[in-house]
Design a protein that fits this description.
The complex is a heterodimer of chains A (about 290) and B (about 575).
Chain A lengths: L22 H14 L7 E5 L14 E4 L5 H11 L4 E7 H7 L1 H10 L4 E6 L34 H8 L3 E6 L3 H13 L4 E6 L11 H7 E3 L10 H8 L6 E8 L5 H4 L27
Parallel strand pairs in A: 1-2, 1-3, 3-4, 4-6, 5-6, 7-8
Antiparallel strand pairs in A: 5-8
Helix pairs in contact in A: 1-6, 3-4
Chain B lengths: L1 E11 L3 H14 L4 E6 L6 E12 L9 E6 L2 H7 L3 E9 L16 E4 L2 H6 L8 H13 L3 H11 L5 H22 L14 E4 H11 L2 E6 L6 H9 L1 H4 L2 E4 L3 H13 L3 E6 L1 H17 L3 E7 L16 H6 L8 E3 L4 H18 L2 E7 H5 L1 E4 L47 E3 L18 H24 L4 E3 L6 E5 L3 H14 L4 E5 L2 E3 L3 H9 L3 E6 L5 H10 L6 E3 L8 H11 L1
Parallel strand pairs in B: 1-4, 4-5, 5-6, 8-9, 8-10, 10-11, 11-13, 12-13, 17-18, 17-20, 20-21
Antiparallel strand pairs in B: 1-3, 2-3, 2-14, 7-14, 12-19, 16-18
Helix pairs in contact in B: 1-5, 4-6, 5-6, 7-8, 7-13, 10-11, 16-19
Chain lengths: ~290, ~575
Amino acid sequence: MGTPLPLIGKSDTKPTWCPGCGDFGVVAAVEMAVKRLKIPSHNVVVVSGIGCSSNLPHFLSSYGFHGIHGRAIPVAEGIRWANHGLTVIATGGDGDGFGIGAGHFVHAMRRNVDLTYVTMDNQIYGLTTGQASPTSSLGQKTKSTPDGVIENPIEPVALALASGATYVARGFSGDVKQLADLVAGGIQHKGFSFVDVYSPCVTYNKLNTFDFFRQRVYKLESAGHDPSDIVKAWQRALEWGDKIPIGLFYQTDRPTYEDLEKVLEAGPLALQTAGIRGGEKVLDEFV
Amino acid sequence: MSEIAVRVGGQAGDGIASIGESLARCFSRLGWHTFGLNAYQSVIRGGHVWFQARAADPRPHSQGDGADILYALDKATVEIHAPGLRRGGAVVFDPEKFAVADGELPAGVRAVPVPTLEIARKYTSQSILQNAGGIGGAAYLAGLPLDMLHEVLRDSFGRKSGEIVDWNLGASEAGYRAAEKAAGQVPNAVSKKGAPKLLMNGNQAIALGAAAGGCKFLAQYPMTPASSVMHWMAAHAHTLGVVVKQAEDELAAINMAIGASFGGVRSMTATSGGGFALMVEALGMAGMTETPLVVVESQRAGPSTGVPTKTEQGDLNLMLGAGQSEFPRAILAPADPAEAYRATVRAFELAESWQTPILVASDLHLSENFFTVDRAEIDLNVEVPSLFTVQPNGHEYLRYQYTESGVSPRAIPGQPGLQFVAGSDEHDEHGHLISDIKAGIPKYILERQKMMDKRMRKLTGLAHEVPEPRWEGPADAPLTFVAWGSTVGAIRDAMVVLAAQGKSTNLLAFPAVHPLSESAVRAAFQRTKKTLLVEGNFSGQFGRHLRAETGLYLSERLLKYDGEPFFPHEIVARALEVM
């Protein structure tokens, strides 16, 4: 036995998030979860799009792909299909995932691709200095909505349930321990796991602050919620106001895309042979 | 020169393409080089569609001009196509459906009645079987042996029930005999000319080239005329070991392909202009993250939705400029399926060795029409090296290390000790962002410039590795055609026509339109006397590119943007004007 390969840790790049940003709790929770599962760092790929939160891959010692706005999911899917021996974690914000990238989010869930998607949902566009996001509250005043938001917000947990996600959770970056449990559960889950995280923006969202959530969140596991019951999960997903649930809403077993893709039965694509040398028979159909 | 062209016309849904393809296959199996033009519209039923199978010696490279035999499933087909029939030709029609008098046809063209519906009724109430009688009649008049027609039909219906095969064999023979009875002896029996040829369209050749070039992942969103790349690959996914993913849109398709490439497999996406326009941002990401990628862009008549079923070479400007700022790319522009096969193989090699996106420019004319290929032209023995070549050596691994070639050692996720982050933001040699707190700091201003220089150095190397401009025809010809992509085919045929008239011409084709090596291109043009630029777009986009890159201006032009492919006679006429 050689020395065990290094587990994930912090990279030598320090986060550039604002002091107090919710995303610090998220990167800490992802690191804790992966470490706890003892997955060597070279077998982990963290993928993101663009936004404050999408800088996250740079702060971990795993492989990373920091792509373009809204496209973390298709890149992550491509990586999974190229090598389904890898643990793939997609990360990003609410604008990235539910605005410009909403289409990919929905389709990845119906495919049940075996990856974990962690969104740092701060209900605002931070990196572009404070415009409304798809999850901003009705009436919320932002730089782009000085009269208040007049569009109904997307409820990511409900959208995930409707789209066929097989692991749907919500965390709060003010509770890193529970969040790490939820992310670890998602990584262990076979299929698409989604963890929406209330991760407050301390600079541009004066409405959905740490205090706002601390006063309202309650844990589903303490409320006797049964995560195998999708109807109950749906009811909980629509709760918003004085009480907001966090925890695991729903989990079910369904074959993953990788399970059903016959070409992957021969093992990870990256380890299969490539080319068609000696396969002259393929030309016969053209005669 | 000897040639025979059989045209079949009717409405969408009539089975025109399958009749035409079977006729083309009869010729190609007899060893004749053949061209099959599939002309259709953006409707599933109705409208007017036609297919032309043209066999010729010397090898035909286009649909040619005119036809000899026309099988008309409706009267509209007669009205549209009869004027293009050559003396000695014939029209096969069913008098039960409509009448055709000899007087309606050009001089020397006969109307040959074949009771296709009556023949079909002997077997079934399904009127689609009328096509069997019709193809039999057309095959007889084209001089094709009945046993070859039967062999082809047996193979194409082989997966269906024995009854359906028998009906088609019986009905086609009845049609063959009916035409024989009506028309008497035909002079032009098509004899066996050699080993059977392969009959394939450009998209099949591209998909085959991708698989041979090591492609393991294809993500695509349906769009005419690129869709059949996906269709062919999906049909062969299991035997070739290629994952084919129909994505939710073109944005996903290209990002999935980039992800898969980053993850350790050779990857491709294919689309047409509209889809490619959506892929533009991600193309730049492949350039910035230095992720190998092959993109097939099969052009159709634009702008916007344009004429989806018609051809054009109007996307060159888009392909050259796609993406904000600048990054290295190459654009290969094959002329025919044999070249499309090789170009796609080459595209994978170039993408891999230069770690940047490589485009294969096709168009509807090449992608969807059928060309014959000799087996020897398709070499499947392509070496595909492993991607896991970088090994940790105890030193710090620099994914984006500055190198003379611009290419840095690429690790694949899963390799221990080589972790890095590929960033679409500007980064240093490690891959660390220099786009936020480092941007504008003197040290990183220099890093930014050095990293741009590193990436763009690849273009110099690429220019030496893309296929060179290619000469065809006599060296000392007084007129040189200049062309890229599928337009080359009609020029080759026009050169044969011109040679028969005693006019010597040659061709300078550009199998790679970018990057151009200025010295090589200028040297090539030293050899030209007069030139004629032939392009399938409005403004002469390649002419503009050539001028921008080399200062050479080609003033004589033949530009076409009506959606139709070039016909040899158009090129001949313009050449005679210029000469």
